[in-house]
Amino acid sequence: TGPVNGGVFRQVGVTAQKTMRLLPASGKKATQKVVVGDQDGIITCFGIKKGEAVPVFKTLPGQKISRLELGGALNTPQEKIFVATGSEVRGFTKRGKQFLSFETNLTESIKAMHISGADLFLCAGYIYNHYCDCKDQHYYLSGDKINDVLCLPVDKVNCITPVLACQDRVLRVLQGSDLLYEAEVPGPPTVLALNNGNGGDSGEEIVYGTSDGKLGLIQITGSKPIPKWEIGNEKKRGGILCIDSFDILGDGVKELLVGRDDGMLEIYKFESADDPGLQYDHALSESIASIQGGCVGKDGYDEILASTYSGWLTGLTTEPVHREGGSGEELKLSQEMQSKISSLRNELEHLQMKVLQEREKYQQSSQSSTAVSSVPAFSVNDKFTLNKDDASYSLILEVQTAIDNVLVQSDVPIDLLDVDKNSAVVSFSSCDAEPNSNFLLATYRCQANTTRLELKIRSIEGQYGILQAYVTPRIQPKTCQVYQYQIKPLSLHQRTHSIDQDRPMNTLTLKGQFSFAEIHAWVVFCLPEVPEKTPAGESITFYFQNTFLGTQLESTYRKGEGCFKSDNISTISILKDVLSKEATKRKINLSISYDVNEESVSHTLKLIHPKLEYQQLLAKKVHLIDALRELQVHEGNVDFLLPKYRSILEEADQLLEEYKRQPAHLERLYGMITDLFIDKFKFKGTNVKTKVPLLLETLDGCDQDGLIAFFEAA
């Protein structure tokens, strides 16, 4: 059995990732104090006595706190508190006295921080800095944004080995200011933690979590990375934001505690060193920014403490809820509970009175002649990412207060897909595609107390523009914030580490008077997951995979030249059109040449056809369901039906669910085949648009060889 809900301890302001820690216990049996930093710049430290939060200290507001770490001399209790705020690092004692204010030379705000003795490791954007006793030691410019930083324990590995978690799906291992090597991981790593809290027996083991919900362990040796285990995200849960190691089950082996951005808290147990299994999970209503294991509420009972995005601190305890023993204890428990309920009721009444007073005060001031309108500020945590599994984009909006509604508008054709976890009511408004380029207008009305909304959309490659989300929370006066997301020309492509070089490839070559920065900006405009900063060096190669079809793209470019290779001729066609347009905008003359591989068309058709066949069969089955159900009602039983029809009836609910989850899937595949047909002949200088109706007729019930034959005969 896992820990049970120990209740909510208190609320602070909105919190960032990794900003809550437990201070070491001062005695053998003493409970631990909690320290948390929020985006109002306040550090709050408190203990728990009889289920109530008892403050230790609280600092004054300031700049947003982006990270909070504990430090101290090596091999001593780590009880000094360090916070990163803007480009500054501040240090506080466990009593709240400030002893350090270190203004770094970083131009951007600090995003990640690690402390080991006198060594301070900071990351901001693409930049990593290492300081020792606040003196600059080493510097490194990463190829993509750095999400987290860690250093292997110096007392175990006898040297300083920093590890950077970078957005381009690699861990970069450094030696001084130089890159020692890169370790590839299966998704963009968002968080790093030392295995077992100490790097394991060797001190070289690091646990990582990715933004697409994968978890893994990798050994960082002096010469190369050794992957130990990896857990996929079969349950399609959220991205991982925080990790801790703690023996919550009391079996002498530390479990892995994981917090995700969909509010899922997980405990992984180790049956053996390389075999973690999910032992327990618990769903919270908002993303978990920090997670810690320790003894907080009561001596002798360990618990897991989680801080969520809007600043709630929640505990899961091992303390039994129903105590065993005589009626005296039960009476004592009920008296404790009654006094707690009574104090909460009084507090609630007091807050309700305060709200009424403030509301009256606001009404009076807003109606006076000197009234000044003020728009209430609210914080929104948003994430727009491409899912490899179903080639759709997830748009996650999390607000610090309850959401009233979200209006979604798009100037390009997109499909809205169903999300199981989404309880909001959606309504569509008719919109004019011409002349306003307004293709989608949908309103999501949220139920009371919804602070997190997840939407799923699927875009069409070649159609690019902007998706806008207007977020209106339940606060007075009514206010709204707008968030914009780029739908890129090759929106369904995802970065990958390598591609299959044996596939038949089409090549597009560009030459002209453009700089490295200009062609890089064009690639950023066309493709997702490309770092906005121009790469170091004279040339760069990026690899991509189309998440919908599995086709691939290799892009290599430098000053004055770009070469793009793909096994899908439509990808090359889209690139050619968009890059020509972008160059024309900047009045740059391009020399464009292409080499079309005829085999690539049948290769792409072979990738599309199984998907087409599956969707056609699914559509046919779904269309039969109503008629078969009517037969079942009339006849009383279905024994007289052929087995294939009986199986359709048995699986009717799953078939309808799948069909509903993938609207317009068949149309998308028809569109891709049509584009492939037009693009094949476009490169030959032939316009075959008049033959498209014949192609669509052929598609219905045509086998793979027949389809390839049609393409070749046209």
TrEMBL record:
Superkingdom field: Eukaryota
Cellular component GO terms, alphabetical: axoneme; BBSome; ciliary basal body; membrane; neuron projection
Domain BBS7 GAE: 376-485
Keywords for the protein's UniProt record, in alphabetical order: Coiled coil
BBS7 platform domain location: 493-595
InterPro entries: Bardet-Biedl_syndrome_7_prot, BBS7_GAE_dom, BBS7_hairpin, BBS7_pf_dom, Beta-prop_BBS7, WD40_repeat_dom_sf
Coiled-coil stretches noted in the UniProt entry, renumbered to this chain: 334-361
Record domain BBS7 beta-propeller: where: 20-318
Keyword ATP-binding among record annotations: no
Any Pfam family the entry gives: BBS7_GAE
A biological-process GO annotation: intracellular protein localization
Protein name (record): BBS7 protein
Annotated organism of origin: Turnix velox (Little buttonquail)
